[in-house]
Records
---
Amino acid sequence: MNPHRTLVAALSLALAGGARAEQQPLTLDDALAIAARQNPNLALARADADVARADRTTSWAGVMPRLDLTSSAGRTFLGASTLSSINPITQQVLPPSGAQDFPSYSLALQLSQPVFDWKSFRDVSRASSAARAAQLQYDEAHLTVAFTVTQAFYEVIRQERVLTVLEQTAARSKDFVARADALFAAGRGTRADTYSARANLANDLIAAEQQRTVVTQARTALAQVLGETGGADLTVVPPASLDAPGVPTTELPDADTLFALARTRRPVVLAQRQLVNAADAAVSSSQGGLYPTVGAQGSYSRSGTNLGGEGGVFGNPTKQYVAALQFVLTWNLFEGRSTLAQIQRNEALARRAGASEAQTIEGVSKEIIDARTLAISRARQVALAVDNEKVATEALSATRQRLDAGLTTQLEVRDASLKLTQAELALVQARIDHAIALADLVRAAGGSL
């Protein structure tokens, strides 16, 4: 795997199928894909983005037309009258009447369309910026989880390779025991040398056994990041780039170039800009409370004592109806200064969003400088560790030959073996640390270098 590839692209490799087959070796791409499906932090960020999109949809309700249909059916009851009354249409005097009741039906349709509502219009802009910010924060969570998975993945490789080095050290100690026994039998060594060789072997075996526990802990930590249970038997496949011949290059883009890239594609930086836009729109929206609103309304209604038929409510719609078309202006002239207080509050939140954006940009700049410096240093450490391992290997081989010739002691051989073990461990650490440092630099820059 190319260590410079974008981590977001790797996360997008999430498969639609079922769970990973048990005991199947896990590549880094596999781990990133599993995390994309199962990591709880990503699930939380995805839910936040979904909520923000729903809020954006809701905000459009204030500027889109609204159509209401209402209908009712029942009876109207009139109590007995003890006084005469005048028919308003015929002007006839009506005598007192007894109690009566009759069916009552109604049907109404009303259409409303905002024409000018500054608060609602600006609220759409605020919700849209907030939704974009939430999506970018989700993308930032992708980057963070990708790096966390990469770090945990390489930690498993680190501990497995440390175990391999310790097992090889134990194997050399076992060979030293055989050599010490042979030299003692030939009269060229002492009994103390054989005891010392066996004690060294026991110590190396103990160290290897302790390291097996560390390997299991690293595997379960990776499983936890992936959102899986267990993980003690998890196996990983090291990326090919980790064992590439030669030493890694220290040539990386300069900090200014990386920072320019981050400003255009690092999700957390872009999200902060959208949050500033949302805060500014919120200020403008709250200022809309000082302005009037204008809306158009159209209504159509029918009512009567019959449900159907010639004069019924659900009869001929061109007869016996009441229709209205009007423009409505609403202007709140005073509401206890709550609008002014809301404006002041949103202005303070806008200033806070601007300060947060500046703080984020400064933080990303520091991340890039630190990650780039560390990646270069790790590459140099790998080169030094490679040379040191070669020297230690040659030194152990020469010491063994001197021991066979009776020109040195078992103690010097043990010392040379320990130096080789230390050199091998240093090389393992340097290679893993360099790979993690590169992944961190990719994260800080917001994608591939």
---
Amino acid sequence: MLQNYWAVVCDESEAPGLWNVWLKERCVAIGWSPSKHHSVGPTHDSSWQKARSRAQKIKPGDIVIPYLKDYRFGIPGKVLKVAIRDAEWHPTIPKGQYGDYPAEARLGRRIVVKWLRGQFPPFRKIAVVPENLRTGGGEVQQTVERVRRKRLSRFIRIIKDAKNWKPYLPSSAAGKPANRKHQQHSTKSKQKLSATGAALSGGALFLKRARQAFPVLVRQALSRQKIFYSELSDELRMANPRNLNYVLGAIGKTIKELSVEWQQEIPPLQCIVVNKATGLPGEGVAWFISDLKDFKQRTPEERKQILGVELVKVFSYTKWEKVLSAVGLKPITRNPMVDTLIARARAWRGVGECEDHRRLKEYVANNPKVIGLSGFGKGEIEYCFPTQDRIDVVFRKHDRWVGVEVKGPSSPDEDLVRGLFQTVKYAALREAELKSKSQKGRTAAILVLSRKLPAHLKELKHLLGVTVVDGIPTPDPSQSR
């Protein structure tokens, strides 16, 4: 029979000393109490479904590799018996000893093993991954994972190298002995902080950025809007959007760990960050796509449909602020200046079309490439909707319709706010037009500015999901003579 290898997370961050328990009782174990999660039959919890499905594939003779988090491996073990049925529930963590979740005993679906000796660390030691060999976001992401050849070879080399063997210390953070008395007398705010907050608490730059990005993504989820990599990197003042991979990976890892703690599915928040060209996430899909190879072979449209299901989960999830609180973060408080500008925009009274606005409108209509539109002919000026609303310029190509609202250099900030809301309105009006004719088409609306969009309006832009092309200079009439 083919021997398979499995990594099983030993959650030392929530239960310091758990590895000692597993060593003595010769087992590894997973959670999800049979009081709510059953070993057979339907389940609506995707995290439990994945863990259950993988655990059911483990057979006697397979090898399990315990992962203690914080880049630490325990001693591998050869599987003797798989006892994960509801009737076999036998907790390895007593009631009241699992983080901030004392309601019941935990981790009782056992996989009985014989610990391997010889080339592996002795019982009082573990293997710590050297810093130069570490994988961003951790070595094992999920409760149970199949370890295939390439990763297995790497794990075994690390575990067998005696240079990596360190004394085992029960801990809630790598290398720091747990102190239960100290934990019990910590401040009230620290008691409320979930242990998963430790995943974001390091000093590395990507972790600092993850702490900045997490509330931004929650803000976008609550407003039901995706955000482009370029927009998020701009808001975080990052020069290169590609560096977001580690940032989003840290957020995804934290969400997965919190899902395990809460024993309920938390949707993959990081999937709302998408590429502007494709409309798809980058490497982050690996967090929530079970068959990545199959996903990559799908057409772009099929991928969007698959991701659309995840987006619905993210946008309909009601506990995002609770998630932030669990990892020690707070929701974003909106700049009061924006509310003031919205109030001014509401009271705005136009004074007719300015000359610089007219010139910019005509320039954009005659030169679609300056705002990033290729293959379009000249635009139609002052397109009128059935509501008598008028948008400055419209471009058409086959089934594509792109509406453009322009704001010249003399437009104050409150007029830019109007432009953001107008762009949302015009896109909705075009969709209504298509429905009234039983037609289909691709619709987009863009706000074009002569000046740069002020920093304090970028949050509003991202909340509304508006595409802004700024810094387009109004032509000087003297140069055309």
